[in-house]
Amino acid sequence: MKIEPRDAILKLLSERSAGKTICPSEAARAIGGEDWRDIMPTVHAAARALAEEGIVELRQGGERVGSEGIVGPYRIAGRGPD
Question: Is residue 48 exposed (0-12), middle (13-18) or buried (19+ Cβ within 10 Å)?
C-alpha cells in the first residue's frame, strides 16, 4: 500500500510530543526510503496544502511562516488548540 505524503506528515506529527516539529525530509524518507529525494516536491506540496487548510503550521527559525514564498529549510508543526 502506497503512503501518501499528506498521510506521512500527519502520522509523523501524531507520533511527536505537542509542539514538536518534523522536517519534510522525514516524511519523504518514510515514503521513499533510498529514493526520498525524488519525493520531496510532493511532500512540499502536501505540507503547503495542509498549512493552507489550517491543519499544520510551517516554521522557519522557530517562527510561523506562510505557505507561499518559503526559501530554504523549514519545519512542519501540528496545530495545537486555538
Answer: middle
Long-range contacts of 54-59 (CB under 8 A, 24+ apart): 54/79, 55/10, 55/79, 56/9, 56/13, 59/21
CB atoms within 10 A of CB 74: 20
Mind listing the domains of the chain with CATH numbers?
5-78 (1.10.10.10)
The pTM of this model reads 0.90
Q: Which of 17, 11, 2 is nearest to 26 (CA)?
A: 11
- Pseudo-torsion of CA 50, 52, 57, 58, nearest 10°? 90
Tens of pLDDT, residue by residue over 23-61, are 999 999 999 989 999 999 999 999 999 999 999 999 999
Q: What is the DSSP letter of 64?
A: E
Q: Which three cell numbers stand for residue 47?
A: 505540507
